[in-house]
Amino acid sequence: xxxxxxxRIFAKLAEANPDPKTxxxxxxxxxxxxxxxxxxxxxxxxxNVATRRFFPTAKTPADLVALGxxxxxxxxxxxxxxxxxxxxxxxxxxxxxxxxxxxxPHNRAALEALPGVGRKTANVVLNEAxxxxxxxxxxxxxxxxxxxxxxxxxxxxxxxxxxxxxxxxDFLRSAHHWLILHGRYTCVARTPKCGACVVFDDCEFAGRHxxxxxxxxxxxxxxKARTQ
Length: 228
Ligand code: SF4
What we know:
The chain is mainly α.
Protein backbone atom coordinates (compact mmCIF):
# COMPACT_ATOMS: atom_id res chain seq x y z
CA UNK A 1 0.00 0.00 0.00
CA UNK A 2 1.38 3.41 -0.88
CA UNK A 3 1.74 6.40 1.43
CA UNK A 4 -1.09 8.36 -0.18
CA UNK A 5 -3.59 5.59 0.46
CA UNK A 6 -2.45 5.24 4.06
CA UNK A 7 -2.90 8.94 4.62
CA ARG A 8 -6.37 8.89 3.06
CA ILE A 9 -7.38 5.91 5.20
CA PHE A 10 -6.40 7.63 8.45
CA ALA A 11 -7.90 10.93 7.30
CA LYS A 12 -11.23 9.21 6.67
CA LEU A 13 -11.16 7.35 9.97
CA ALA A 14 -10.31 10.64 11.70
CA GLU A 15 -13.14 12.46 9.94
CA ALA A 16 -15.62 9.79 11.04
CA ASN A 17 -14.39 9.80 14.65
CA PRO A 18 -12.27 12.88 15.45
CA ASP A 19 -11.65 12.08 19.11
CA PRO A 20 -11.48 8.30 19.58
CA LYS A 21 -11.19 6.91 23.09
CA THR A 22 -10.67 3.54 24.67
CA UNK A 23 -13.95 1.89 25.62
CA UNK A 24 -12.47 0.72 28.91
CA UNK A 25 -13.71 2.75 31.87
CA UNK A 26 -11.09 4.05 34.32
CA UNK A 27 -10.55 7.00 36.61
CA UNK A 28 -6.75 7.27 36.71
CA UNK A 29 -3.61 5.63 35.23
CA UNK A 30 -3.58 2.92 37.93
CA UNK A 31 -7.14 1.88 37.11
CA UNK A 32 -6.24 1.95 33.41
CA UNK A 33 -3.40 -0.53 34.04
CA UNK A 34 -5.77 -2.82 35.94
CA UNK A 35 -8.55 -2.53 33.33
CA UNK A 36 -6.17 -3.35 30.45
CA UNK A 37 -4.67 -6.22 32.45
CA UNK A 38 -8.17 -7.64 32.96
CA UNK A 39 -9.11 -7.19 29.30
CA UNK A 40 -6.96 -9.99 27.86
CA UNK A 41 -9.18 -12.35 25.85
CA UNK A 42 -12.27 -10.56 27.19
CA UNK A 43 -14.44 -7.75 25.82
CA UNK A 44 -14.13 -4.21 27.14
CA UNK A 45 -17.83 -4.33 28.02
CA UNK A 46 -17.33 -7.36 30.28
CA UNK A 47 -14.34 -5.68 31.93
CA ASN A 48 -16.37 -2.51 32.57
CA VAL A 49 -19.16 -4.53 34.21
CA ALA A 50 -16.58 -6.11 36.52
CA THR A 51 -14.56 -2.98 37.32
CA ARG A 52 -17.69 -0.99 38.18
CA ARG A 53 -18.01 -3.33 41.17
CA PHE A 54 -14.68 -2.36 42.75
CA PHE A 55 -13.17 0.72 41.05
CA PRO A 56 -15.30 3.10 43.16
CA THR A 57 -13.42 1.93 46.27
CA ALA A 58 -10.14 0.77 44.67
CA LYS A 59 -8.66 3.98 43.32
CA THR A 60 -5.04 3.33 44.30
CA PRO A 61 -2.66 0.35 44.52
CA ALA A 62 -3.01 0.46 48.31
CA ASP A 63 -6.82 0.26 48.01
CA LEU A 64 -6.55 -2.81 45.79
CA VAL A 65 -4.08 -4.55 48.10
CA ALA A 66 -6.45 -3.82 50.98
CA LEU A 67 -9.34 -5.32 48.99
CA GLY A 68 -7.34 -8.53 48.65
CA UNK A 69 -7.13 -11.29 46.07
CA UNK A 70 -10.15 -13.30 47.26
CA UNK A 71 -12.51 -10.31 47.21
CA UNK A 72 -11.13 -9.16 43.86
CA UNK A 73 -11.76 -12.63 42.42
CA UNK A 74 -15.35 -12.39 43.57
CA UNK A 75 -15.76 -9.05 41.72
CA UNK A 76 -14.20 -10.26 38.46
CA UNK A 77 -15.36 -13.87 38.32
CA UNK A 78 -17.59 -13.01 35.33
CA UNK A 79 -14.55 -12.57 33.06
CA UNK A 80 -12.19 -15.16 31.63
CA UNK A 81 -9.01 -16.21 33.44
CA UNK A 82 -10.20 -14.33 36.53
CA UNK A 83 -8.08 -16.25 39.05
CA UNK A 84 -4.84 -15.50 37.29
CA UNK A 85 -5.87 -11.93 36.55
CA UNK A 86 -6.74 -11.29 40.22
CA UNK A 87 -3.36 -12.64 41.27
CA UNK A 88 -1.53 -10.45 38.75
CA UNK A 89 -3.57 -7.35 39.59
CA UNK A 90 -2.73 -7.63 43.29
CA UNK A 91 0.94 -8.36 42.54
CA UNK A 92 1.05 -5.37 40.19
CA UNK A 93 -0.46 -3.13 42.89
CA UNK A 94 2.17 -4.35 45.38
CA UNK A 95 5.00 -3.74 42.91
CA UNK A 96 3.75 -0.21 42.22
CA UNK A 97 3.80 0.48 45.96
CA UNK A 98 7.20 -1.15 46.55
CA UNK A 99 9.08 0.23 43.54
CA UNK A 100 7.21 3.27 42.25
CA UNK A 101 5.72 5.07 45.25
CA UNK A 102 2.26 3.86 44.30
CA UNK A 103 2.43 5.64 40.94
CA UNK A 104 2.25 4.19 37.43
CA PRO A 105 5.72 4.65 35.92
CA HIS A 106 6.06 6.54 32.62
CA ASN A 107 8.58 4.00 31.43
CA ARG A 108 8.13 1.03 29.10
CA ALA A 109 10.59 -1.31 30.84
CA ALA A 110 9.09 -0.63 34.26
CA LEU A 111 5.56 -1.16 32.93
CA GLU A 112 6.46 -4.43 31.21
CA ALA A 113 8.07 -5.63 34.46
CA LEU A 114 4.67 -5.49 36.21
CA PRO A 115 3.01 -8.91 36.68
CA GLY A 116 0.52 -9.60 33.87
CA VAL A 117 1.60 -6.54 31.88
CA GLY A 118 3.08 -7.25 28.46
CA ARG A 119 4.04 -5.08 25.52
CA LYS A 120 0.45 -4.56 24.38
CA THR A 121 -0.73 -3.36 27.80
CA ALA A 122 2.33 -1.11 28.13
CA ASN A 123 1.56 0.39 24.72
CA VAL A 124 -2.03 1.15 25.74
CA VAL A 125 -0.91 2.80 28.99
CA LEU A 126 1.89 4.80 27.35
CA ASN A 127 -0.55 6.07 24.71
CA GLU A 128 -3.67 6.59 26.77
CA ALA A 129 -2.19 7.81 30.06
CA UNK A 130 0.98 9.53 28.85
CA UNK A 131 0.13 10.62 25.31
CA UNK A 132 2.95 8.67 23.66
CA UNK A 133 2.74 7.58 20.03
CA UNK A 134 2.48 3.84 20.48
CA UNK A 135 0.55 1.09 18.72
CA UNK A 136 -1.12 -1.60 20.82
CA UNK A 137 -1.63 -4.43 18.34
CA UNK A 138 -4.55 -6.51 19.55
CA UNK A 139 -6.54 -9.05 17.56
CA UNK A 140 -8.56 -6.30 15.80
CA UNK A 141 -5.57 -4.19 14.82
CA UNK A 142 -3.70 -7.29 13.63
CA UNK A 143 -6.62 -8.41 11.45
CA UNK A 144 -7.40 -4.97 10.00
CA UNK A 145 -3.75 -4.11 9.27
CA UNK A 146 -3.30 -7.38 7.41
CA UNK A 147 -6.66 -7.50 5.68
CA UNK A 148 -6.60 -4.04 4.13
CA UNK A 149 -2.81 -4.38 3.54
CA UNK A 150 -2.16 -1.30 5.66
CA UNK A 151 0.71 -3.01 7.50
CA UNK A 152 0.81 -6.71 6.67
CA UNK A 153 2.85 -8.91 8.98
CA UNK A 154 3.10 -12.49 10.21
CA UNK A 155 3.09 -11.57 13.89
CA UNK A 156 2.12 -8.65 16.13
CA UNK A 157 5.70 -7.39 16.38
CA UNK A 158 5.99 -7.10 12.60
CA UNK A 159 2.62 -5.35 12.32
CA UNK A 160 3.48 -2.95 15.17
CA UNK A 161 6.84 -2.08 13.57
CA UNK A 162 5.24 -1.39 10.20
CA UNK A 163 2.38 0.64 11.67
CA UNK A 164 4.87 2.78 13.61
CA UNK A 165 6.98 3.25 10.50
CA UNK A 166 4.28 3.91 7.93
CA UNK A 167 1.51 5.75 9.82
CA UNK A 168 1.66 9.48 9.03
CA UNK A 169 3.06 11.13 12.20
CA ASP A 170 0.11 13.49 12.61
CA PHE A 171 -2.22 10.47 12.99
CA LEU A 172 -0.04 8.40 15.32
CA ARG A 173 -1.56 9.60 18.60
CA SER A 174 -5.01 8.17 17.83
CA ALA A 175 -4.24 5.63 15.10
CA HIS A 176 -4.46 2.54 17.28
CA HIS A 177 -7.88 3.62 18.60
CA TRP A 178 -9.18 4.07 15.05
CA LEU A 179 -7.98 0.64 13.98
CA ILE A 180 -9.32 -1.10 17.11
CA LEU A 181 -12.75 0.51 16.71
CA HIS A 182 -12.74 -0.10 12.95
CA GLY A 183 -12.00 -3.78 13.55
CA ARG A 184 -14.50 -4.08 16.37
CA TYR A 185 -17.47 -2.50 14.58
CA THR A 186 -16.88 -2.45 10.80
CA CYS A 187 -14.04 -4.65 9.59
CA VAL A 188 -15.27 -7.46 11.84
CA ALA A 189 -13.69 -10.91 11.76
CA ARG A 190 -16.22 -13.04 9.91
CA THR A 191 -18.09 -10.79 7.51
CA PRO A 192 -16.61 -7.30 7.25
CA LYS A 193 -19.22 -4.59 6.71
CA CYS A 194 -17.61 -3.31 3.53
CA GLY A 195 -20.81 -1.62 2.37
CA ALA A 196 -20.68 0.68 5.39
CA CYS A 197 -16.92 1.17 5.39
CA VAL A 198 -15.50 4.68 5.10
CA VAL A 199 -12.17 3.41 3.78
CA PHE A 200 -13.60 1.08 1.15
CA ASP A 201 -12.03 2.95 -1.80
CA ASP A 202 -8.50 2.62 -0.44
CA CYS A 203 -8.75 -0.83 1.16
CA GLU A 204 -6.71 -3.47 -0.67
CA PHE A 205 -8.59 -6.52 0.61
CA ALA A 206 -9.25 -8.57 -2.51
CA GLY A 207 -12.48 -9.97 -1.08
CA ARG A 208 -14.07 -6.67 -0.19
CA HIS A 209 -17.58 -6.41 -1.45
CA UNK A 210 -19.73 -3.33 -1.48
CA UNK A 211 -23.37 -3.86 -0.73
CA UNK A 212 -24.53 -0.46 0.38
CA UNK A 213 -27.82 0.27 2.07
CA UNK A 214 -28.66 2.48 -0.92
CA UNK A 215 -28.28 -0.37 -3.36
CA UNK A 216 -30.49 -2.57 -1.19
CA UNK A 217 -33.15 0.16 -0.95
CA UNK A 218 -33.04 0.69 -4.71
CA UNK A 219 -33.56 -2.95 -5.58
CA UNK A 220 -36.54 -3.33 -7.94
CA UNK A 221 -39.14 -5.24 -5.98
CA UNK A 222 -41.35 -7.46 -8.20
CA UNK A 223 -44.93 -6.19 -8.43
CA LYS A 224 -46.27 -9.44 -6.97
CA ALA A 225 -44.06 -9.12 -3.93
CA ARG A 226 -45.12 -5.48 -3.42
CA THR A 227 -48.76 -6.42 -3.13
CA GLN A 228 -48.19 -9.18 -0.56
S1 SF4 B 1 -13.63 -2.39 2.80
FE1 SF4 B 1 -14.20 -4.20 4.00
S2 SF4 B 1 -12.31 -5.35 4.25
FE2 SF4 B 1 -11.73 -3.28 3.64
S3 SF4 B 1 -11.39 -2.18 5.59
FE3 SF4 B 1 -13.50 -1.83 4.97
S4 SF4 B 1 -14.69 -3.41 6.05
FE4 SF4 B 1 -12.52 -4.06 6.06
